[in-house]
Amino acid sequence: MPEIVTSPLILALVAALAYLLGAVPFGLVIARAFGLGDLRQIGSGNIGATNVLRTGNKGAAALTLILDAGKGGLAVLAARAAVGPDAAQLAGLAAFLGHLFPVYLGFRGGKGVATFLGTLLALAWPVGLLACGTWLATALVTRYSSLSALIAAATAPLWMLYTGNGRMILLGALLTVLIYIRHAENIKRLKAGTEARIGIRR
């Protein structure tokens, strides 16, 4: 972790603003804007880009991916520019929690993969690129979005150490644990062989 030099009041304000940004359910907004219906009633019911893709609208899925990743990245960059490195990590965590537990949707949100990757890219782009590459390589081989996310999350702390960004290791470990918790049902389906593959509608 970076040295904490910012006052608790400022950090609390940063966390609150980052959480509210992260809580914006872009998948739900985009699906409705594209006339795709209520995303929570489609496919897995998840509000992320993978479930938007199950509607068959690749443009909407790509836009959801960019916006979900962007809110994590924006929270980090804004906090770093306005306050400092200690606030940047906190903002990344808060935005991630906002996506997982959005106040706007009764604290029932997404699984956080895009926001996770966007946060890593903003905190340390080499780590983010390696995590994105891990996700993409796994997805190309297996066509399982969930498995790709799990492997990308599990290897992220290793990439942090490899690239000399050990100050992020605590945050990385926490985000990884949260992703595994949110993918508990996916892990069960992967073991049972019933998990949906990328691009396949349920």
What keyword list fits this structure?
mainly alpha, globular, 202 residues
Task: Briefly summarize what is shown.
This protein is 69% helix and 0% strand. It has 202 residues and is mainly alpha-helical.
Overall geometry: globular
* Tally of alpha and pi helices: 10
State the separation between the terminal residues, measured CA to CA: 42 Å
Number of strands: 0
- Strand percentage, roughly? under 5%
CA radius of gyration is 16 Å
Largest sheet: none
Helical coverage, percent range: 55-70%
**How many distinct domains?**
1
Structural class: mainly alpha
What string gives the helices and strands in order?
HHHHHHHHHH
Unreliable stretches covering 5 or more consecutive residues: none
Mean pLDDT: 92
Q: How would you portray this structure in words?
A:
The chain has one domain. 69% of the residues lie in helices and 0% in strands. α4 runs parallel beside α6, α7 packs antiparallel against α8 and α8 runs antiparallel to α9.
